[in-house]
Amino acid sequence: MAKYTAIYDACVLYNILNLPDPNDRHVLAAAIVGRVEFIAHLCDLSPSTIYKAAKMIRGRLKKPPMSVDDYLNCLAKQGLSKTVDFLREAESLI
């Protein structure tokens, strides 16, 4: 089922992307969907590693420092909603 969702998402993106060479739209759409799916897949494989990585990355953000909520909102704005949902379940760890 997830494979078909990814294909659908790529098709939707393909239709709304505006690039100088329209023949490149499929490449960008696949890259966008692939990045999102890849991170979500990692969350399933090794949750503790993802929590540690998110905590480390958030800790490096010092100007200005980010609260957990600000950090997750930033990820959400980047289209990482599945990852944000996963991280929200363990906010105390990040």
What does this structure look like?
The protein has five helices and no strands. By secondary structure, it is mainly α. It has two domains: 1-45, no CATH class; 46-94, no CATH class.
β-sheet strand percentage: under 5%
The number of domains: 2
Low-confidence stretches: none
Net shape: elongated
Task: Output mean pLDDT.
Answer: 79
Please give the radius of gyration in angstroms.
15 Å
Kindly state the percentage of residues in helix.
over 70%
Per DSSP, the total helix count is 5
Quickly describe the structure.
With about 90 residues, this protein is mainly α. Helix content is about 70%, strand content about 0%.
Question: What are the main properties of this structure?
Answer:
single chain; mainly alpha
List the helices and strands and how they pair.
Blueprint: H1 2-16, H2 25-45, H3 47-60, H4 68-77, H5 81-88
Helix pairs in contact: 1-2, 2-3, 2-5, 4-5
